[in-house]
Specification:
binds NADP nicotinamide-adenine-dinucleotide phosphate; alpha/beta; 27% helix; Dihydrofolate Reductase, subunit A; 32% strand
């Protein structure tokens, strides 16, 4: 199974304001929703799951099958199940014969997946903004990763999308 990390970020690599706000362009939201709808499978950190649930975002992305990674023991909730680790999240997806799943953040889970070597592809939508403070693309963790650029396109005059393959070392 391939895990596709998909994040919108500022030009300096912030994925949200300090207060969790994500003021992305309409075209970015549309592309994110399109990618999630295509694969019908989403992996989220517990904080991002709670933010999306509160703001009613699951409907917008087509109510995909969702695995939420958490150290807590939480009962499954509709289309959402809970997993104790990135490895467990991937094995739940594989049991369902899911070929591609979108890893939808946030910073802490992104870093956990990179550290575990479980990300196959990365899509970054770069918005024309800079936040001096905020939530970084990856929480601080001890990992390095090497990428191949496989695509670059304009989503609009101001927003670009970068696609990378994660090289196996
Ligand atoms: N720009 C974008 O595209 C985008 C997308 C998504 C989110 N965001 C932003 O990202 C922010 C949230 O990121 P965040 O880093 O604070 O939270 P997060 O990654 O969404 O969730 C963190 C939680 O996930 C669980 N977790 C992470 N790694 C784990 C592991 N290896 N094993 C077990 N559980 C693990 C833990 O849950 P427990 O505490 O329950 O154990 C942890 O507290 C928000 O501001 C959100 O708006 C932006």
């Amino acid at each position: 199974m391939k895990v596709i990390l998909y994040m919108a970020m500022t030009a300096n690599g912030m994925i949200a304001r300090e207060n969790d706000e994500t003021p992305w362009s309409g075209i970015e939201w549309k592309n994110y929703a399109k990618e999630v709808r295509k694969h019908k499978a989403l992996i989220l950190g517990r904080r991002t799951y709670e933010i999306m649930k509160k703001s009613g975002e699951f409907k917008r992305v087509g109510n995909p099958f969702t695995v939420v990674v958490t150290s807590q023991s939480i009962k499954s909730d509709g289309n959402c199940v809970f997993a104790i680790s990135p490895e467990k999240a991937v094995s739940i997806m594989e049991e369902r014969k899911i070929k591609n799943a979108v890893l939808g953040g946030g910073a802490s889970l992104n870093a956990s997946f990179m550290k575990s070597g479980l990300v196959g592809e990365i899509i970054l939508d770069v918005e024309p903004m800079i936040f001096g403070k905020g939530i970084k693309l990856f929480a601080e963790e001890n990992f390095e990763s090497y990428l191949s650029l496989v695509g670059i396109r304009n989503l609009s005059k101001n927003t670009i999308q970068l696609r990378y393959k994660v090289r196996k070392v």
